[in-house]
Design brief:
The complex is a heterotrimer of chains A (200), B (825) and C (102). Chain B is mostly helical and 825 residues long. Chain B has 25 helices and four strands. Chain B folds into two domains: 482 residues, Cytochrome c oxidase-like, subunit I domain (Cytochrome C Oxidase, Chain A); 156 residues, Four Helix Bundle (Hemerythrin (Met), subunit A). Chain C starts with a helix and ends in a 5-residue tail after the last helix. In chain C, strands 1-2 form a two-stranded antiparallel ribbon. The longest helix of chain C has 29 residues. With 102 residues, chain C is mainly α. The chains are: A alpha+beta (200), B mainly alpha (825), C mainly alpha (102). Chains in contact: A-B, A-C, B-C. Bound molecules: copper (II) ion. Chain B: InterPro entries: Cyt_c_oxase-like_su1_dom, Cyt_c_oxase-like_su1_sf, Cyt_C_Oxase_1, Cyt_c_Oxase_su1_BS, Cyt_c_oxidase_su1_bac, Cyt_c_oxidase_su3-like_sf.
């Protein structure tokens, strides 16, 4: 988890929050369990356990509050990292096939297995496949998006610094699945100009 | 009659047949339940060995232990066996074994159906495992996504093995589900109102209900994909108006409820065991029932969370994300009910409790990562990585394996009548628990570091080596633990000292019988006034053995048990159950022949086996019923009730109702598929349209209505109504013929476009039910002539009416859908 | 029939959930978001209407079932009806929080 784009970064933040919450909640359960067995030996028991406390507050109210907060935040975040409504700086058509990736740029050029993008720009990918289902995933930039024959999906990515990022196919696609990878090269302004002018 | 005489009499009546014949003709729920449990444990071991192969392969980067093709078969079969041949049959087996004993009944509602389910499971499972031995096992992942699993990219027999084998096993699951629901509704002790049922029965009722509505989408999906593979109908082919996403919807429409189908029975065992271990009562019975029901419903609103990365609009993902988050709430209520019960009681750390502590630890972590995955953006990052693999193993091992291990130790004294020998169980626990966490905890990390699932190798520079090596070591520790567990159980069965009755001090009815349990369960049937009858009346076991309960006297060699009113538990009638029979194994073998012919692509021979199935079922139905009036029967509390031959609302009736519910779900899924392809798939509308078949629709409606009306008029009140039955047959026959003419005369070719494929399938579905209804009506004609259907014994005609109504209804719906579709194109 | 009362609340949720999901899917497929009825977007307005109807119906059902008091089943039925209404409310939240067809 070393995010290099706003989408991946937001998801990483979300993950740390959820992790903290999970540690707290599971800790609570384990402490209760531990104490229940410890007091089993000695304490006087009050006969009727409080259903209101155990089921109403702990079982119902607590998760409702936690989950609603999480859900609202996540829906909001999910909406934010979608492509649009603001226009992208560049749109690239991505086609996955057994076992390669081709990237077609607006000027009609096509690159195989390497996706060139400018850094610090919003890129919309229009993703499809020609044979079986694949999934486009660059872990450090954004979540994944499936490449499905007959369907066209969109994914927005953004690299906030120049660099080379590894991408893989995340959906099992046959025996070549393991090597079904690609690279994303995020260029700084100058080398992006070079790329555009075909001086690669 | 004294207790010994009663035991002898009942034992003779309920005994299975001796020798080899007895192996094939057994119908007793105790025997079949044990068979299910043992077979599923064996399948677990097989899938476990596959898991070891996976861990051996992944232990280091660039391992050359197995190649990609073998690895694909291994991970596909590991998942498929664990899900379809271990988890579901195991929960069925436990329920089949326990339910009648918990409910105070002598057997399940349909003993021969139990046996049919067993044979279908055994044959289907054998086909799947056999394919592994010859290297032709399924290899497209356990959810078998087309197009990868389709005819073009898996030309071999691999996917067919999965589709046919799993469908065969699903038949078994549907048998079990229907049987379980009907048993819980009808075969309970006198006075066991719904709110006095043992909590386990609620869990299993919900589970079986979910199976009835959750499995048909997968069965439909499997049928469609198999048709596409065998005959080229393009349901999932985007070139011809199909969509690979339709499969994903159908699969997960089954697949998510499936997770809860697996978890709920285990939770039922937990809710049963925890109060006993804590020496108190479960707190919040009503709240738990409510949360079980809530889980059962909500789990049908989550399926799309397996499809968060398929490009579905974010708002739709939001609906499913919300439902996925909410489903944690009923789970949390149950967890805190268990914690509160432990808090309120004086828990003792017996061995089953130790395993339940393992459950708490593992399941809580799995549940929390589950909430994380319900969150769309996080899911899109973690989906299809080792993180998901880790999560699902925490949920399934925590939510199923650990509770089942606890249940095994808890009920072993009941199954074998013996105590455990040495303290091997503790050692097994620590090995499994520590091994499990070592294996899977690190996989959360490998996943977050970007390791996808289903890769047979990975580059050394990825830096995942040490995590994977640790996982592999944990895996082998775990395997050693399971081996110790198996050894412990075997030792207990062979060498254990005899246990006294009710060794844990439980309050439920299964502990009132001798252990190991006799074939008839209860010498006389209990009456109950509370949820823990044995807890309330310590002498209950002896009283029942002395014959102080109901149906204490063996009568006419009949296998009698009590059927009650669904809500109140008042005695309703005496059900006389069938004895050992070879019909189930014959039916399963005929099904097996059909599936084998399909697998071998002998499509012209396959239908012959369906004819054989029909013949066996006809013979089967012929063995029921009574030609003579039986009259009211004494049940032993001074009252009389009718026999099931002369009662209303018998198990046969309810069984048909739920079977039709399942079929209706399949039909609904098919119509959903039609609408889905229409709106979402590419290349719609199709080139070749359809003229609205208005004339045919008129004929279909007329025939269907005539059948539904005349079958009612033929109910045996006065006269024998044979003429009316002929008219009903004529009506249904007309519907059948017109339906059959549609694909020939009207519909576009099924191979050209998904439109033709789906509409032909719709018609075929209507045709299937029309054929069933016609056969049933013909059967009723025979039964009337033979005197089985007569005044006072109208039950079979009522069941027939259900099937005729359903066939009539679906035929009309099919015709109307076609008319609408024709106008829409 | 106590089992039907027990299932009523969440069955209502299930129907509402399917209805909203269906309208959402159809709307996106047929391009409704671009159409308006008076001041409202047709697509979102129809989903909001469904959402409100099913939530209100769920609350009404819970109030009705709340009148049966006796067994544990009656109480559970009422709880489940509230659960159904609450779930309808929460699972419809995306309608107002998220863009419709992206
Ligand atoms: Cu791929």
């Amino acid at each position: 988890m070393d995010p290099a784009g706003p989408s991946a970064a937001a998801i990483a933040d979300l993950w740390w929050w959820m992790l903290a919450g999970s540690v707290l909640l599971s800790g609570l359960v384990f402490v209760i369990l531990f104490l229940a067995f410890r007091r089993a030996g000695r304490a006087e028991r009050s006969d009727a356990p409080s259903e209101k406390l155990w089921l109403g507050w702990l079982g119902l109210a607590m998760p409702v509050v936690v989950l609603l907060a999480l859900l609202t935040y996540a829906l909001h975040l999910g909406g934010r990292i979608l492509p649009g409504p603001d226009a992208p700086d560049l749109t690239v058509e991505v086609t996955a096939y057994n076992w390669g990736w081709s990237f077609r740029y607006p000027d009609g050029r096509v690159s195989e297995r390497v996706l060139h993008i400018p850094a610090d720009a919003k890129i919309d990918l229009v993703i499809s496949a020609t044979d079986v289902i694949h999934s486009f995933w660059v872990p450090r930039l954004a979540g994944k998006m499936d490449a499905i024959p007959g369907h066209v999906n969109e994914l927005r990515i953004e690299a906030d610094r120049p660099g080379t990022f590894a991408g893989v196919c995340a959906e099992y696609c046959g025996i070549g699945h393991v090597d079904h990878d690609f690279q994303v090269i995020a260029h700084d302004g100058e080398s992006w100009q070079d790329f555009l002018e075909n001086r690669e | 009659m004294n207790a010994i005489g009663r035991h002898r009499g009942l034992a003779r009546i309920w005994a299975g047949e001796p020798g080899l014949r007895g192996v094939f003709s057994a119908v007793s729920h105790t025997d079949i339940g044990k068979r299910f449990i043992i077979a599923s444990a064996i399948f677990f071991a097989i899938a476990g060995v596959l898991a070891m192969l996976i861990r051996a392969q992944l232990a280091t980067s660039h391992s050359a232990f197995v190649g990609p093709e073998a690895y694909a078969q291994i991970f596909t079969m590991h998942g498929s066996i664990m899900m379809f041949l271990f988890a579901i049959p195991m929960l069925e087996g436990v329920a089949i074994y326990l339910l009648p004993k918990l409910l105070g009944s002598r057997d399940l509602a349909f003993p021969r159906l139990t046996a049919l389910g067993w044979w279908c499971y055994l044959f289907g499972g054998s086909i799947m495992v056999g394919s592994l031995l010859v290297g032709l096992a399924p290899n497209a992942g356990w959810f078998l996504y087309p197009p990868l699993s389709g005819p073009e990219y898996t030309p071999g027999v691999n996917s067919d093995v999965w589709l046919l084998g799993v469908t065969f096993v699903e038949i078994s699951a549907m048998c079990a589900a229907i049987e379980i629901v009907v048993t819980i509704l009808k075969f309970r002790a006198k006075g066991m109102r719904l709110d006095r049922m043992p909590i386990y029965a609620w869990y299993i009722l919900a589970t079986a209900g979910m199976m009835i509505f959750g499995f048909p989408p997968l069965i439909l999906g499997s049928i469609l994909l198999e048709i596409e593979r065998a005959f080229g109908w393009p349901f999932f082919d985007p070139e011809l108006g199909g969509s690979p996403l339709l499969w994903q919807h159908l699969f997960w429409l089954f697949g998510h409820p499936e997770v809860y189908i697996i978890f709920l029975p285990a939770a039922g065992a937990i809710s049963t065991i925890i109060p006993v271990m804590a020496r108190t009562k479960l707190i919040g019975y009503g709240a738990i029932v409510a949360s079980v029901m809530a889980l059962a419903f909500l789990s049908f609103g989550l399926w799309v969370h397996h499809m968060f990365t398929t490009g579905i609009p974010h708002m739709a993902l939001g609906f499913f994300s919300a439902a996925s988050v909410l489903v944690a709430i009923p789970t949390s209520i149950q967890i805190f009910a268990w914690l509160g019960t432990l808090w309120a009681g004086r828990p003792k750390l017996e061995l089953p409790m130790l395993y339940l502590l393992g459950f708490f630890f593992v399941f809580i972590l799995g549940g929390l990562t589950g909430v994380m995955l319900a969150i769309v953006p996080f899911n899109q990052q973690a989906h299809d990585t080792a993180f998901v693999t880790a999560h699902l193993h925490y949920v399934l091992a925590g939510g199923f394996v650990f509770p089942m291990l606890a249940a095994a130790y808890y009920w072993m004294p009941h199954v074998t009548g013996r105590l455990r020998v040495m303290r091997i169980g503790e050692a097994a626990f620590w090995l499994i628990f520590i091994g499990f966490n070592i294996t899977f905890f690190g996989m959360h990390l490998t996943g977050l570091l970007g390791m996808p699932r289903r890769v047979y190798t990975y580059p050394a520079e990825a830096g995942w080596d040490w995590l994977n090596l640790v996982s592999s070591i944990g895996g082998f520790l775990q395997a050693f633990g399971f081996a110790l567990f198996a050894l412990d159980i075997a030792l207990q069965a062979w060498l254990g000292r005899p246990a006294r009755r009710n060794p844990w001090g439980a309050g439920t009815l299964e502990w009132t019988m001798m252990t190991p349990p006799p074939a008839y369960n209860f010498a006389s049937l209990p009456e109950v006034e509370c949820r823990e009858p044995l807890g309330a009346r310590g002498t209950l076991a002896a009283d029942l053995a002395r014959g102080e309960g109901l149906l204490a006297a063996p009568r006419n060699g009949w296998r009698e048990t009590l059927a009650v009113d669904i809500a109140s538990g008042k005695p309703d009638h005496v059900a006389i159950l069938p004895g050992p029979s070879l019909l189930p194994v014959a039916a399963a073998a005929s099904f097996g022949g059909f599936f084998a012919m399909m697998l071998l692509s002998l499509y012209w021979i396959a239908p012959l086996f369906l004819v054989a199935v029909t013949v066996v079922i006809w013979l089967w139905a012929s063995t029921n019923g009574s030609r003579e009036p039986v009259g009211p029967l004494e049940i032993g509390d001074g009252t009389t009730v009718p026999s099931h031959y002369e009662a209303q609302g018998t198990v046969g009736y309810w069984g048909s109702v739920f079977a039709l519910c399942a079929s209706g779900t399949l039909f609904g899924s098919l119509i959903f598929g039609f609408a889905y392809l229409w709106t979402v798939a590419p290349h719609w509308p199709p080139q070749t349209g359809l003229d609205a078949p208005l004339f045919e629709t008129g004929l279909i409606v007329a025939g269907a209505l005539a059948a539904a009306i005349f079958v009612r008029l033929a109910l045996p009140r006065t006269g024998n109504g044979e003429g009316r039955l002929y008219l009903a047959i004529a009506g249904m026959g007309l519907t059948l013929l017109v339906l059959a003419s549609l694909p020939v005369l009207r519909l576009p070719a099924p191979t050209d476009h998904a439109f033709g494929a789906v509409s032909t399938t719709l018609v075929a579905y209507g045709l299937f039910h029309a054929m069933v209804a016609t056969l049933i009506l013909a059967f009723m004609m025979v039964r009337k002539r033979q005197g089985f259907v007569a005044h006072g014994r109208p039950q079979e005609m009522r069941v027939a009416t259900l099937w005729v109504d359903y066939a009539a209804g679906t035929a009309i719906v099919v015709a109307l859908v076609l008319v609408l579709a024709a106008w829409g194109v | 029939m106590p089992l039907l009362r027990l299932s009523a609340g969440l069955t209502l949720w299930a129907i509402g959930f399917c209805a909203i999901y269906a309208v959402h899917g159809l709307g996106c497929a047929l391009g409704w978001p671009n159409e308006t009825v008076g001041p409202f977007e047709l697509h979102r307005a129809s989903m909001i209407a469904l959402w409100a109807c099913f939530t209100l119906a769920g609350i009404w059902l819970a109030l009705v079932l709340g009148r049966y008091r006796g067994s544990a089943m009656d109480r559970a039925s009422m709880l489940l009806a509230w659960a159904g209404a609450g779930t309808t409310l929460v699972s419809g939240l995306p309608i107002v929080l998220v863009p419709a067809c992206l």
